[in-house]
Amino acid sequence: MEEDIIDQLYFGRIVPWERQVEKPPEIEQCSDQVCEDIECLQKSLDEVGKKVLERFLDNNSEVEQFQVKESFKYGFRLGMQLAAAGLEKSTINMESSNWRGNDMDNTSTYICPRCGQTYYEPPALSREDNQTLICPDCGTREALESIGVDRKEQEEILAIIHQSRRNL
Ligand SMILES: [Zn+2]
């Protein structure tokens, strides 16, 4: 039976920090050269130099590990935010069929009570009280807010969504 990602999680097979990536040949070459150069330095340096080299390598790997970890977190959060924003859109589309059957009609424009913008698309339901109708963008804002995305990032994500819609 093929394991899906949740099976893999359950069995502890997802371990980002010890993930080994296959290096392309040119990177493999760089990496070999680094090892060779370290060996060369270790042989040619005096005691003080060796200590400096050792300290340099330790600190460098510390910084590198930190950066890799932060990049992983950034990539993960960004992916989650985009997925959440995408899901929010499909919820709104589903709601729009009910909305069309209501006494509001398609040609009307509405003013969003949350941001004050005029909008033409089917509204979203505010998460705050589950009854206020807000504009689709504010629906996305609330969804992102609920997963801890700050204001600035919310607007950045909306810009990406608008951009991708224009390109459709
Ligand atoms: Zn709004």
Can you tell me about this structure?
This is Hydrogenase maturation factor HypA. It contains five helices and four strands; from the N terminus they run H-H-H-E-E-E-E-H-H. Strand 1 and strand 2 (118-119) form a beta hairpin. The chain starts with a helix and ends with a helix. The protein has a domain at 77-166. 12% of the residues are buried. It has helices spanning 5-10, 25-44, 47-101, 136-146, 151-166; strands at residues 110-111, 118-119, 124-125, 133-134. The longest helix is centred in the middle third of the chain and has 55 residues, at 47-101. With 168 residues, it is mainly alpha-helical. The protein has a two-stranded antiparallel ribbon with strand order 1-2. Bound molecules: zinc ion (ZN).
Topology order in helix (H) and strand (E) letters: HHHEEEEHH
Number of DSSP strands?
A: 4
The largest beta-sheet arranges its strands as 1-2
The number of helices is 5
- The rough form would be described as elongated
* Uncertain spans: 96-103
**How would you classify the helix and strand content by structural class?**
mainly alpha
Organism: Blautia parvula
InterPro entries: DUF6809 (IPR049215)
Protein name: Hydrogenase maturation factor HypA
Pfam families: DUF6809
